[in-house]
Design goal:
Elements lengths: L7 H6 L5 E5 L6 H11 L6 E3 L20 H11 L2 E6 L2 H9 L4 E4 L1 H4 L2 H10 L6 E5 L6 H13 L5 E5 L17 H9 L5 E3 L1 H5 L5 H10 L4 E5 L17 H10 L11 H41 L6 H17 L4 H23 L2
Parallel strand pairs: 1-2, 1-8, 2-3, 3-4, 4-5, 5-6, 6-7, 7-8
Helix pairs in contact: 2-3, 4-6, 6-7, 12-14, 13-14
Bound molecules: phosphoenolpyruvate and manganese (II) ion.
Length: about 350
């Protein structure tokens, strides 16, 4: 699989870089599907997405219109000339998508986790020249993601790509699905020619952070974005909180900075830019982790206030620093450095706790 030029389809499509896929989480009605498509036609989006078969966490929610919505999607292509994509979750869906000449078939996160389902879909699509994009599994398992892509590759499907939609975590974070960028970066390192599309909508779960996540993806040289878009997001039948209007989509894509590989750029310069992007990302993750640590410190402050316990507990602090010095040593970090860093962290924590205790 390593040597395959997966990105050939992207070059052949001759679409603007980055590739922008947009459309509603779910195809709700024919009117809704077409209204959104005509609005998206005025943006940078060149591929129209819509969910027809919706995998829902709990029963009783809208599960999609099913095959009935396929002619609506076909009409999008007819009326706007946009390419189209839908999610398939079993062999029957895959056959129907081929019948209706859907251009790009995507595999959802809940399907990628199941090798039986993936194999069944790969068999149904055998030898197709349609593009198949595989979302990451909901759990942070790179091998499972690669395994699914391999099943399509072994079924003779050459036009492959991946979609990064973040990973589910039990712990509440500011993301709906934690991006864990190191996983798609590792996928890119292993398969440099495999296009990766970022889905900021399912990573964020909300509208106001979509720009930032999209920018990070472009800084990491992802080939495109898949963004859920709806003319009346608040009234969407699924994922209402994260959908944005086509007007907002246009603003976002206009404001994004695209890092182009300049031809004259020397290899070493290119490498340096890539490594700097990785550093920027790690720094960002450090800040997020520190903020999370301060939150926990504040919660401790609440407990201390209730129990009327002093903020500073020297023995606990000695224990923490000793543990971190050992941990640091195992990771090649000097004890002076660890002591300096943790003293600063501890001071900041105490300030956060004092704020709570004195409130
Ligand atoms: C979707 O794209 O609407 C969807 C269901 O995504 P995921 O498989 O990433 O949850
Ligand atoms: Mn969705």
């Amino acid at each position: 699989m390593e040597s395959t030029n997966f990105s050939a389809w992207l070059e052949k499509m001759e679409l603007a870089h980055p590739l922008v896929i947009a459309g509603p989480c779910s195809a709700e009605t024919e009117e809704q599907v077409l209204e959104i498509a005509h609005e998206l036609k005025k943006t940078d989006a060149t591929v129209y997405r819509a969910g027809i078969w919706k995998p829902r966490t709990r029963p009783g929610n809208f599960e999609g219109n099913g095959a009935k919505a396929l002619p609506w999607i076909a009409k999008v292509k007819e009326e706007t000339g946009m390419l189209t994509t839908v999610e398939v979750a079993n062999a029957q869906h895959a056959k129907l998508a081929l019948e209706f000449d859907i251009d790009i078939i995507w595999i959802g996160a809940r399907t990628t986790v199941n090798p039986f389902a993936v194999q069944e879909i790969a068999d149904a699509l055998k030898g197709t020249d349609k593009i198949v994009l595989v979302k990451n599994p909901i759990n942070p398992d790179l091998e499972l993601w690669i395994g699914a892509i391999e099943r399509f590759h072994s079924a003779g499907i050459k036009n492959l790509g991946a979609i990064h939609r973040g990973f589910s975590s039990y712990k509440k974070t500011k993301y709906r699905n934690n991006p864990q960028w190191q996983i798609p970066i590792e996928l890119k390192n292993r398969y440099p020619k495999l296009p990766i599309i970022c889905d900021p909508s399912h990573i964020c779960g909300r509208r106001d952070t979509i720009f930032d996540v999209s920018q990070t993806a472009l800084d990491l040289k992802f080939e495109g974005l898949m963004i859920e878009s709806h003319c009346d997001p608040d009234k969407a039948w699924s994922d209402a909180k994260q959908q944005i209007t086509p007007t907002r989509l246009k603003e976002i894509t206009e404001d994004l900075r695209v890092r182009k590989d300049r031809v004259e750029e020397k290899d070493s310069v290119k490498k340096l830019t890539d490594l700097r992007s990785e550093i920027n990302l790690l720094d960002k993750q450090l800040i997020e982790l520190l903020a999370e640590r301060m939150n926990v410190a504040e919660n401790i402050g609440v407990v201390k206030k209730e129990a009327n316990v002093a903020i500073l507990q020297r023995s606990r602090w000695q224990e923490v620093i000793q543990k971190m010095v050992n941990e640091g040593g195992q990771n090649g970090l000097s004890s002076e450095f660890i002591e300096r860093v943790f003293k600063a962290i501890h001071q900041e924590s105490i300030q956060h706790q004092e704020k709570i205790v004195n409130s």
